[in-house]
Every structure is written in structure tokens, then in C-alpha cells.
Amino acid sequence: MALAPIGQSQFAPGFAPAPSKEMGQEAFLQLLVAQLQNQDPLDPTDSREFVTQLSQLSGVEQMVQMNERLASIEIAQAGIVNAQLGSLVGRTVTATSDGAWLGASGGAAVGFDLGARAERVEVTIRDESGRVVRTLGLGETFPGTRRVDWDGLDDAGVRAPAGRYSVEVKAFDASGRPVPVTQEVTGVVAGISFESGVPELVVGDLRVRLGDVTRIMQ
Hints:
Helices cover 24% and strands 33% of the residues.
């Protein structure tokens, strides 16, 4: 008697395994034993197919052990990462960012790094709907890390509402050609946020991903 492939029933009438999306080691073994118990005595199990079934069981056991080990490694790595992130609280970091947070009072700082001397720099600030709130212009600006302070007013001189704004910085040389510019934010890490599903540094009211951090200072 040939054993039916796992998943095809040779059980006695009325016997059925509980439905499951995944078959674990114990369920696999129970299924194999049930097949042996319900084999036809006049047509016994082929020994070669029985060995094949046993090898499948061994494979399932190895997969279960591997999954358990991977889960343990993942937990350990998460603990290490969380400990490392905690050490950043209170440190000053610089990270690439195209956002700015405006509070109920005061202004907001916009940072960027200029790759070469620029004849003019344009800073465009937009609200969450994409509407241009304020356009700031700078004259000749030299290479390196630069900062623009936005006073929180729109182009009409009216105080903009508190909230998150997107910032776009463009720089041009004397011929009108673009100059390389990298947008950055610098601030003290106040905490760690996991709201997005990945760890983010809380810098002011902004959320900065660890992969975007370019400098860490005391």
C-alpha cells in the first residue's frame, strides 16, 4: 500500500485533522502515525515511501528549530538597537530632512549644506496641502552648513498656523546653473518614537530616521 501524500486523507471514516494554515512538527507526526494505523493489512506500507515520509518529518523539525533560532536572534538584535538608540537621547544630531515644525510662537530653523558657492539661494516653505506659505531668498552664499531662520510669517506678513511644513532649498551659481544642496535639520534628541513601525529620533517636533542621521555631537 502506498502512503498518500501529506494532505490527502487515508484516515478512517469520521476522522479529520483540524484545519491549519501551517503544519508543525507535532501535527506532521500525528498525521504520519494515523496513516500507518489506518493502512490496509493486505497492502502494507511501502518501506521506501515510509522513509520518504520520515525524511519530510526531519525537514519539518529542522525548519521549526531554525525559525525558533531566528526569532531569538531578532529579539536580541531589537534589544541591542533599542539600547543604542536610548544612548542618543540628549545628544545633538544632524540629519537630512525636508521638514520644519512651527510652534504656536517663535520661528523655525531651516538647515542645509551647500556643495559649492552659490550666487543665490531660494527657500520655499509649503504647508501640508502643498500651498506655498513663504519664499525666502538669500544672496551670495558660501559652501558648507548654512541655516535660515523663518520668522513664522507667510508672504503677506500674517502669522502661519502651528504645524508641520515642508521645505525646499534650491541654489544657483552666477550662470543660473544648480548648485548641489543637501537639506538638513540639527537639534537635540528628546526621545525615540516607534509610531511609524520603525525607530525614529524625536528632534524637536520632527521625526528623524536613524539612517538619515549624518552627524552625532555631544
